[in-house]
Amino acid sequence: MSKVSKRKHVMNEALWDDYELPKDNQNIVKVVKSKGNNLHEITTPIGEEYLVSMPTKFRKNIWVKRGDYILVEPIPEGDKVKAEIVKIMNKDSIKFYKENNVWPKQFEDNKSENKPNEDLFENTNRKNIITYVSDSDSTSSDQRDSEQEN
C-alpha cells in the first residue's frame, strides 16, 4: 500500500466517518496541551487530567491541537499514560453527540456557537492597531457644520 493510500485510510479511521455512539469504556475528553513523543495531556468532564497516547498508525498522519475533543479508550498497563486515542472529533461528530444527549455538559461552550468565524486563524504575531477618535474633533466639526448653516 502506498503512503497516500495509507494516509487516506488512516484519516478516514481517525476522523469522524461513521456516526456511532461511544462504547461503555470510551470517554470524550478535551486536549489541554501536547507533551511530545505522541503524548497529549487531556482533561475529562469531571476535571481529571492525565496523558493519552497517539496510536502508531495515526502518527505522522494525524495532528491533534490544544482545544480539540477526542474519544479515548483506557489502557490497563498505564500509570502515567492512562488511555489511547480512538477518534478525533470534528463539528459534525460533536453535533451528533449533542443531538443524542451523549455530549458532556461540562464541555458545553456557548461562546463558540455564537462565533461565525471560529475556523479562521487568528494571527497573534501582529499587534492590533487601535485608533482613537477624540471627542474634540467631532464637536469642532459639529460646530463648523452649524456655523455654515447660519
TrEMBL record:
Species of the source: Bombyx mandarina (Wild silk moth)
Protein name (Swiss-Prot/TrEMBL): Probable RNA-binding protein EIF1AD
Residue ranges constituting the S1-like domain according to the UniProt record: 17-90
Residue segments, region Disordered: 107-150
Compositionally biased residues, Polar residues: 122-133
GO molecular function: RNA binding; translation initiation factor activity
SUPFAM superfamilies named in the record: Nucleic acid-binding proteins
Gene behind the chain: LOC114241649
Keyword Secreted: no
Bias-annotated ranges (Basic and acidic residues): 107-118
Family designation: Belongs to the EIF1AD family.
